[in-house]
Specification:
Structural class: mainly alpha
Number of strands: 0
Radius of gyration: 19 Å
Mean pLDDT: 82
Low-confidence stretches: 151-159
Largest sheet: none
Strand content: under 5%
Number of helices: 8
Length: about 160
């Protein structure tokens, strides 16, 4: 009795379609809601509350929304906001990298954290370590990016 390759491929395909359907069900309404909120000026009022965070992380004000969505919901669902913001030209290259560095370490903070706590992890240690490491990595990137911007044509850059 071997594994039926066709059956395994079909199961993988069906699972992928179901996952994609679930993402679309959440991302599409989220994108519509965000666009409506942008048109009404609501997003500016919300992201204005994060001015200190943007300044601290050395990212633009426009990068705050994708960052907050990614932290709260995660990469899978927040990626729609990140991609849309990038396509609209709201995010600089530095912002895109900073968001991705931060979210690589600290994404879906509610879901992932609660899942790991249920499995026995310490809530305070988990939250603190993820946030501190994400902030430290993003700040380090911000310092290195500024240094690299000053030497754009150098063939050998020492870091």
């Amino acid at each position: 009795m071997g594994i039926d390759l066709f059956e395994a491929a079909w199961d993988g395909f069906v699972s992928g379609v179901h996952g994609l359907k679930n993402i679309v069900i959440i991302v599409m309404p989220l994108m519509v809601a965000i666009e409506l909120a942008k048109d009404k000026g609501i997003m500016e009022r919300i992201t204005a509350k994060f001015d200190a965070l943007a300044g601290f992380l050395k990212i633009s004000q426009k990068a705050v929304l994708p960052l907050v969505v990614g932290v709260g919901i995660g990469f899978s669902y927040g990626s729609g906001v990140i991609i849309q913001s990038a396509r609209e030209g709201e995010l600089t290259l530095k912002d895109r990298y900073a968001i991705n560095i931060f979210l690589s370490i600290c994404h879906s903070i509610f879901e992932d954290t609660l899942l790991l706590v249920v499995m026995g992890a310490s809530l305070s240690w988990l939250l603190a370590s993820r946030l501190i490491l994400a902030v430290a990595a993003t700040l380090l990137y911000g310092r290195l990016f500024v240094r690299l911007e000053k030497e754009p044509h150098s063939s050998t850059t020492t870091l």
